[in-house]
Design goal:
Distance between the termini: 53 Å
Oligomer: single chain
Shape: flat
Radius of gyration: 18 Å
Helix content: over 70%
Order of helices and strands: HHH
Largest sheet: none
Length: 64
């Protein structure tokens, strides 16, 4: 099987991930949330998420 990514690129990616653990974690959360919403959320789930998003938006506005 032919690898598409060079070993140097894989090593560089792993190094970046180690230096940016918080960004990696947040990216994972975002992908998981999108997948859940697009593929698995019920109408009730979507309503709950809308409420949570609205609350978070208000918190962020108050911080400014």
């Amino acid at each position: 099987m032919l690898k598409k990514t060079s070993e140097a690129q894989v090593k560089a990616s792993r190094k970046w991930e180690q230096k940016n653990k918080e960004k990696v974690k947040i990216g994972s959360y975002k992908r998981t949330a999108r997948l859940f919403i697009k593929s698995h959320a019920s109408q009730e789930d979507i309503e709950e998420l809308k409420k949570l998003i609205e609350e978070r938006e208000n918190e962020l506005k108050e911080e400014k």
